Automatic annotation (TrEMBL):
Protein's name according to its UniProt entry: MFS transporter
Organism: Thalassobellus suaedae
InterPro entries xref list: AmpG_permease/AT-1 (IPR004752), MFS (IPR011701), MFS_dom (IPR020846), MFS_trans_sf (IPR036259)
UniProt keyword annotation of Cell membrane present: no
Domain Major facilitator superfamily (MFS) profile residues, every copy: 248-450
Transmembrane intervals: 21-47, 59-80, 92-113, 119-138, 159-180, 186-205, 243-266, 286-307, 319-338, 344-367, 379-397, 409-430
Pfam families, per database record: MFS_1
This protein's UniProt keywords: Membrane, Transmembrane, Transmembrane helix
Subcellular location(s) of the protein: Membrane
PANTHER family xrefs: ACETYL-COENZYME A TRANSPORTER 1, SOLUTE CARRIER FAMILY 33 ACETYL-COA TRANSPORTER -RELATED
Topological type in the membrane: Multi-pass membrane protein
Domain of life, per lineage: Bacteria
Length: 450
């Protein structure tokens, strides 16, 4: 009898809703899986293009195109809220679908012939990688909002975003090394083999007790999943509309957009600036950037969420953004020091660290403003706005470089964090929660708190 009881406890602990350690582990690995393709498509390939003398406009156009699917996430989220294979969980089937798509699309990008002279095909292939990455991202975020208790969200966001930056770091350096050693057409598909192992996580860990592991195994939908499953488009969009027109929702949407623009400009600018202006190789850039993102990821995992928990989202965001303005002013006014690699390394490290901490704080803020009934769609809307800003910022780099010098560009982009600081001061969590409580009963959806 004791043995049977022990076995039952062990099985119970393999469900995300029942085990906090498993939740942290699951979402850390899934966000590591999100960072892996981004490390290749958004960093390794642009650096490779810069190394092969592609113009800033061509590189910026490539990054802007592959960033487009991340802006479509708001179209994906309602689809996931409305339809799913409920006996396997509300979001887990979509996570598995996204992972399968990533594996196939990475194999496909290796089929692009002469990618340096066929940027249109490279953009299309990269677009599909981002498309399936967006599917996996939305499903993971939706699953996290539903199974992670509110008191764990800041810590979970730190682990998740830290893991993602580590994924970016590791695949950037590995991808660059493989591209240089094996060539693009062999290196990229080879990496898809490594990505294939990530799919084991959503396959092995179920959301709630009683659900199926796979479609052909025994199981049934959990009572919680049946209670909150949305059964009409009208309910989804009615609930979403009510919450996104609240003042704090509007303010965070604007702030996230401007922060996304800043991220897009910096991410696209760095490989072009270091390789074409400073004379670095793509290997040098990948080593520096991967090192700084790895350090930032580790700090984000263990300190990012804790700082938000202790000091609050708005205070930490304000501090991080002020420091971002300062570091951009310093690099813009210090062109005489650009020849010192240690100085540039310090700039990339600090800017990457601040970017990671800002993302963690914004994620925690967005989750706190979400209304459980439409949380997945609402959170995805915020992230879609951020990615729209990022795509626009990426495409802006080529235009900025044609008009301004590098010194002027660094100074100009401080406008974005400055505006963001001003906007987040208008976010009021207490008033937002009170307004949600007032119209909670008006949304004709039953929901049971976790």
């Amino acid at each position: 009898m004791k043995l049977i009881k022990g076995e039952n406890n062990f099985k119970k602990n393999l469900f995300l809703s029942e085990n906090s350690f498993l939740r942290y582990l699951n979402f850390s690995i899934l966000y590591l899986a999100q960072g892996a393709p981004e490390g290749i498509t958004f960093y390794a390939i642009p650096a490779w293009l810069a190394m092969n003398n592609k113009t800033p406009m061509e590189i910026a156009s490539y990054v802007a195109v592959i960033g487009i699917p991340w802006s479509f996430k708001i179209l994906i989220a309602p689809l996931m809220d409305r339809f799913t294979f409920l006996s396997m969980g509300r979001k887990r089937p979509w996570v598995i679908f996204g992972q399968l798509g990533l594996i196939i699309s990475f194999l496909a990008i290796g089929l692009v012939q002469d990618p340096l002279n066929n940027l249109d095909s490279l953009m299309i292939a990269g677009f599909f990688i981002s498309f399936f990455g967006a599917f996996q991202d939305v499903a993971t975020d939706g699953m996290a909002i539903e199974v992670v208790p509110e008191n764990e969200q800041a810590r979970a966001n730190g682990l998740m975003w830290g893991s993602k930056t580590i994924g970016v770091s590791l695949t950037l350096v590995a991808g660059t090394a493989l591209i240089n050693a094996l060539g693009f057409s062999i290196a990229i598909p080879f990496l898809s083999i490594a990505f294939a192992f990530f799919i084991l996580v959503p396959i092995c860990f179920r959301e709630r007790p009683g659900e199926k592991l796979m479609p052909w195994t025994k199981g049934k939908p959990s009572e919680y999943a049946k209670t909150i499953q949305l059964d009409s488009w009208k309910k989804i969009f009615k609930g979403l509309l009510k919450v996104i027109i609240l003042p704090s929702s509007i303010f965070i949407s604007i702030a996230i957009c401007f922060n996304g623009m800043l991220n897009g400009v910096i991410d696209t600018l760095l490989p072009i600036y270091t390789i074409q202006e400073l004379g670095w190789t793509n290997t040098s850039f990948s080593q520096v950037y991967s090192t700084t993102t790895l350090i930032s990821g580790l700090f984000g995992m263990f300190a990012g969420g804790a700082l938000v928990d202790f000091f609050g989202e708005k205070r930490m965001l304000s501090i991080y953004l002020i420091l971002t303005i300062a570091i951009l002013f310093i690099i813009g006014l210090s062109s005489s020091l650009w020849g010192f690699n240690s100085f540039i390394f310090g700039f990339i490290l600090i800017s990457t660290l601040l970017g990671t901490f800002i993302s963690i704080a914004f994620f925690a803020t967005a989750m706190r403003l979400c209304y459980k009934t439409v949380a997945a769609t609402q959170f995805t809307l915020y992230m879609a706005i951020s990615n729209s800003g990022r795509a626009y910022g990426s495409g802006l780099v080529g235009t900025l470089k044609e008009i301004f010098s590098w010194e002027q560009i660094f100074m100009l982009i401080t406008i974005s964090p400055l505006i963001t600081i001003l906007i987040i001061q208008f976010i009021n969590f207490v008033k937002h929660k009170n307004k949600l409580d007032k119209f909670k009963t008006s949304i004709s959806l039953k929901i049971k708190t976790i």
